[in-house]
Amino acid sequence: xxxxxxxxxxxxxxxxxxxxxxxxxxxxxxxxxxxxxxxxxxxxxxxxxxxxxxxxxxxxxxxxxxxxxxxxxxxxxxxxxxxxxxxxxxxxxxxxxxxxxxxxxxxxxxxxxxxxxxxxxxxxxxxxxxxxxxxxxxxxxxxxxxxxxxxxxxxxxxxxxxxxxxxxxxxxxxxxxxxxxxxxxxxxxxxxxxxxxxxxxxxxxxxxxxxxxxxxxxxxxxxxxxxxxxxxxxxxxxxxxxxxxxxxxxxxxxxxxxxxxxxxxxxxxxxxxxxxxxxxxxxxxxxxxxxxxxxxxxxxxxxxxxxxxxxxxxxxxxxxxxxxxxxxxxxxxxxxxxxxxxxxxxxxxxxxxxxxxxxxxxxxxxxxxxxxxxxxxxxxxxxxxxxxxxxxxxxxxxxxxxxxxxxxxxxxxxxxxxxxxxxxxxxxxxxxxxxxxxxxxxxxxxxxxxxxxxxxxxxxxxxxxxxxxxxxxxxxxxxxxxxxxxxxxxxxx
Length: 493
Ligand SMILES: [Zn+2]
Prior knowledge:
Elements: E1 2-7, H1 21-34, E2 38-44, H2 56-64, E3 72-74, H3 86-98, E4 102-104, E5 109-110, H4 115-148, E6 160-165, E7 168-173, H5 175-189, H6 195-204, H7 217-225, E8 232-235, E9 238-239, E10 248-249, E11 256-259, H8 268-279, E12 299-301, E13 309-310, E14 321-323, E15 333-334, H9 335-398, H10 404-437, H11 447-453, H12 459-469, E16 470-476, E17 487-492
Parallel strand pairs: 1-2, 1-3, 3-4, 12-16
Antiparallel strand pairs: 4-5, 6-7, 8-11, 9-10, 13-14, 14-15, 16-17
The structure holds zinc ion.
Zinc ion binds next to loops.
């Protein structure tokens, strides 16, 4: 019998990368060989289009069938041929029927001119389409259910990473980004900064989105409105409307807020404050009046408690001085000296933090490694045990104690278990490597970026980032003090 092989991926194969067309081809060639079928042509659909008009190989096959080259079409299963619209399947089957071409699958040979077979094949085709619909529906249902469980099923927003915890899809806080989310809320709510000012400040700190682009005004605005940051999941933001291809936005009143499994990055209080400010359409103060004092609002006189000011009317920045407004209170100092001292203190704070983080990190890694090593040992032991069990199984089979059926059942279950264990083993090994390489620096907060970029910042930006890490600074200097003799006590947040 002369046959044409037809190969095409099905939707079910997408979840299983091992199901390649190459493998299918091998199986079918073997089948042809065993069943004395002469393979005349192989049609291999490279593009997995659903509709007939973009299934070029099928169209070619349908063109060649009337030439009488083949007696049958050989394929993995019936729905490789069909599975498009009902009209498409019908057209294919009509051609096969007209030229009396049989369909050979691994399961069955279909003769479309045999009445029983035709019913059967049509039924199966119908089932295949039904099944597809069912799968799609089940997938959507699964999605809704996991969202109701607090899972996070889309791409992680800035500040988070997608993670699977206890087999559930959720988010984990990604500190290198999360610290900027907190900074954005703080700048907007507590420091009265507008979107443009925040965006500029982040840009000068070299902060980018996950895609590597700067965080512009609209991104910042979206971050401020995103309920994910308080641990919520918003559902029902859009819906499918019959007859319309794309999803339609729904009214805010029908949005659903569900408690997510993930941890919040900002507090509900600051988030709600931000929403109020957005709703009020607050116009942030225009930052045209150039801020010249990077320490504005930060330094308090230890004597009288007033906030220290700067004589920004001085001609050059070198002449700026930090002054207490109370007459004959603490002695003033050159602004640059105070700023340098503060900067040195931040550096010191950072290096202590770095040491602490590194130590923690090392401890953490060695602890985790021990646990994983234990797991690896256990799996290896179990694999050895299964090997022994398997060889005993062969003995029992050879001795005739196990029959074919029992043997293949047992052997299958042992192999399944072995595969599971092997997968777990390679996962554990991968994790050990990943953890050893994970960067301790990631855990160092805002400080590092400020140190790296401080000198590039404008006074206003310096002021903003300092306010992010420092609550206030106490200042004291006696009348007779030497130029450098300034007492500063920095209260970090
Ligand atoms: Zn004072």
